[in-house]
Structure prediction request, 348 residues.
Amino acid sequence: MNPKVSVIIPAYNTEVYIKKAIESVLNQTLTELEVIVVDDGSTDKTVEVAKSFTDRRLKVIVNPQNLGVSAARNLAIRAAKGEWIAVLDSDDWYAHERLEKLVLLAEQANADMIADDVYFIKDGATSPWSTLIQESGEHIDKILQIDIVYFVETDVYGKIGLHLGLSKPIFKREFLVKHSIEYDETLSIAEDFWFDMKCLINGARFFLVPEAYYFYRSRSFSLVRESRLKRLNQSCIATSSFMQQKVVKKNPALMRALSYNLTVYNKNIDYYQVLLPLKQGNWLLALRELTKNPSVFYDFTFKLNDMIKRRFQYYVMGNELVFEMPYNIQIKRRKPMHPSFYSPSNNK
Prediction:
């Protein structure tokens, strides 16, 4: 008999974290599951830690060389046998009832994909400091169906919004197989957003649950912090390509939303092409880029006040959370969440 859920965990040099990730799945209240860890060419003891588990529900696949997170996930999806596919990053973890809750709600709503709210927790902290919905500025207190235009409009780079590209939905495997949906292996950052977009453009019924069951660990050297320019360039290419699809062109609201996102990506590329050389002390290169894009001077002046405030908060006030949001998304809240906001049973 096939498992109810296949949890796929791509891993690369996360020996310190992966044990907690795997345990959080094996200890789920829903027991009809399999765990597929794909080690993507790690050079530390990630494989050794993963293989130390004796639970028969766990399978470890080892890539001899690093192929990238998208390729690792695709490999796991092809090996999966569950009715549902759940994704877990190897430095994150689940609340113990997550899968049971989401599968039950997904079946009740006849969903093709369903996501929960996400706890943000700083590496080394004992409790989350906020959640994805809490930071979004949106008021969501019941299950909400997400359409593709809303998904795009609330996920704009650097802007306050829902940013569901950061969520980790569970997906009906039958739907993925039917529409031949896989991760784009040319993307190493923001790959979740475009995977979700493929599902939505193929008519997936996507629901968001306001409760949080996923713990997103913020680390200084995680992939999402690797390179802003890299992410922006990849996002520009992916957006332009997506906009060429006939089904997308037939949706004016979606085209407008994607076009706006593309404009924001390009403006930020111009900005960082000036800012990064400045940070490196390469004034000549920065001046050259500024000459190419004079509008960056206005953007820099506009953002300077916010940059000063953030650095004052960080260095003078000791507020380490001002730089914690992934992808440089603006932060609404500055204080950690009150402990009563989340269930003690979730913070294991």
Summary: Strands lie at 5-11, 33-40, 58-63, 84-87, 93-94, 113-122, 130-131, 144-146, 170-172, 206-218. Confidence is low (pLDDT under 50) at residues 222-226, 331-348. The CA atoms of residues 125 and 217 lie 9 Å apart. The chain is about 40% helix and 15% strand.
